Automatic annotation (TrEMBL):
One GO biological process term: cell wall organization
Pathway given in the UniProt record: Cell wall biogenesis; peptidoglycan biosynthesis
Keyword Lyase: no
Matching InterPro entries: Enolpyruvate_Tfrase_dom, Enolpyruvate_Tfrase_sf, MurA_subfamily, RNA3'P_cycl/enolpyr_Trfase_a/b
Cellular compartment(s): Cytoplasm
Domain Enolpyruvate transferase: 6-418
Origin organism lineage: Bacteria, Pseudomonadati, Pseudomonadota, Alphaproteobacteria, Sphingomonadales
Cell cycle is among the record's keywords: yes
Top-level class of the enzyme under EC nomenclature: transferase
GO-annotated cellular components: cytoplasm
Keywords, alphabetical: Cell cycle, Cell division, Cell shape, Cell wall biogenesis/degradation, Cytoplasm, Peptidoglycan synthesis, Transferase
Protein known as: UDP-N-acetylglucosamine 1-carboxyvinyltransferase
Catalytic reaction list: phosphoenolpyruvate + UDP-N-acetyl-alpha-D-glucosamine = UDP-N-acetyl-3-O-(1-carboxyvinyl)-alpha-D-glucosamine + phosphate
Amino acid sequence: MTALYVRGGQPLRGRIEPSANKNAVLPVLCATLLTDAPITLRNVPEITDVTRIHSFFAELGSTVRWDKAAKTLEIDHSTISPGARATLPQAMRASIMMIPGLLARLGEARLENEVKGCTLGAREIDPHVAVFRAFGAEVTFESKNIVFRNKGKVEGTRMWLEYASVTTTENFIISALTATGTSQIVNAACEPHVQEMCAFLELMGARIKGKGTSMVSVEGGVELHGCDYTFVEDFHEVATFLALAAVTGGDIAVRNSQPENFMLIDRTFEKFGAHVEHKDGWSRLQAPAELVVQSNFTSHLITKVEAAPWPYIPADLLPIFIALGVKAKGQTMFWNKVYEGGLTWHTELSLFGAHTLLCDPHRLITFGGDRLVPATVTSPYIIRVAIALLMVAASIDGESKILDADPIKRAHPNFVPNIDSLGVQVEWES
């Protein structure tokens, strides 16, 4: 594990070209297994999980050329032999989205019993198992592995999810493309990265209706061809740099080709007295002289930021707004309706001198505006929490250290050089 040294206290200023969204890149990579035709992907970030998938494809027998400088990945799965076998990467949750492609291609896939990812509490795979079984797969335990086998002809189906899970929705859509007939999913996740995966599949020739809504229909049995696809900017990273401007009293513009996704995010910034402007493909936040939590019209209720599946504020963005809550004068309640382990890191904020109160596993109150001091803090294995701790450190005059900050590398390959270019001194130390 590595630590980040942060010398903060300066307003951050400048312009940033963000990377692509990890949560769009990984399912798209998994979906490439559906075709033997060559595929070119552009604006591919050099992140840990992409490296793992690249290695897995090579082990499987695919021809993969990755020009990291050009951010281009060329994939040709036609070189996979029918008897190929490979162990799915266990250290990332995206592994489970390779199963539909492997079932269609090889008839079998094996997954270690514990699929890892960010430490956000219990993240069951039962919804995924339900999807694979709905499409006719046999799922069994063998030693420490979960084994998925294709039992024959795959037919379309209809499924109503108990919860609008992103990866379950993506697995359903990918599986449906391998089936005959039309499949439909109700209570589908509709996050921007789910829509982006659908856009990629449509470019390959898939016929998908309802992307971006809670009811998606997929026509199966359509032959998919190759394509040349460029990933859009990660809306998480766009919002994070805007938050860095707010928390440090700075002025940052970020490239953003999809401002239509920011209406609720913008309103959330407004709750702390910060305004976002979208113009000519860029999003800009010029920090106010002071962050102040805005009062509700219903004066006896505390200002809230609620995170839930899209189109709510994404749970992945809640930590960056908690960082704003720590800095802004006033009280804010943060409600994570997704993960029961998503707020336990708040104790690290107290090392900076912040005052917070955990009401229960899902709700946290910040009492902002106190004077903060440099500190050494430890990040859990959660990407945006490591960034939130960095944000707070960047807003404080002096040197802080963030231990176990590696999760940042899982999603943002150029994050540290980017914020360094904005005026804060940050460096890695093993």
